[in-house]
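Not sure how to ask, but would you mind making up any protein sequence you like and the tokens describing how it folds?
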Amino acid sequence: MSITVTTWSLEQTSPADLRPAAPVGPDVTVVRSEVPSPEFSRFLYSAVGGDVTWTDRLGMTYAEWEAALGRPGTETWVAYERGTPAGYAELATDGDGSVEIVYFGLIAAFRGRRIGGHLLSVATARAWDLADRWPDLPPTKRVWLHTCSKDGPHAMENYRRRGFALFDTKVGEEPETATPGPWPGAHG
């Protein structure tokens, strides 16, 4: 059985495009995970994407996770609430001045509390100044991402409020797959 999935691609072409969300208070911090860790990144990926059918990385080997996280210009930014991981954004570049927010989202229990707007603001700002931390890379000239109809109901609104503009829409069929989580009784 298959389902129809719409994928929207959005971009910013100038740092001036970013419209930051208001900070959410001192209990929420966003920190770069500076040591690439397949274990931690896989935890974030499955905890955030488990209920919205993120499955593309579940079959990756440890070595594949290491390779993906170890590329120059790849960064993981994690939102914490009082020390507990609440969500994350993964940035990646091809080295051409284009930075993709490859993955972005919150763990279900932290959604709907304005943390996502703050995390997206910080992640986007860090995408714009990526070359400051990676001197062998060119300055960022574009930040982009994609979202789809399988993602959370507020994803598109958050991207637009932060200043992302739609540049492409695709509709296709995908096999219907069961979500890998969260487990029964988890916040959703």
About this structure: The beta strands are 2-12, 28-32, 75-81, 84-93, 98-106, 142-148, 165-175. Residues 1 and 127 are 38 Å apart (CA to CA). The two ends are 25 Å apart (CA to CA).
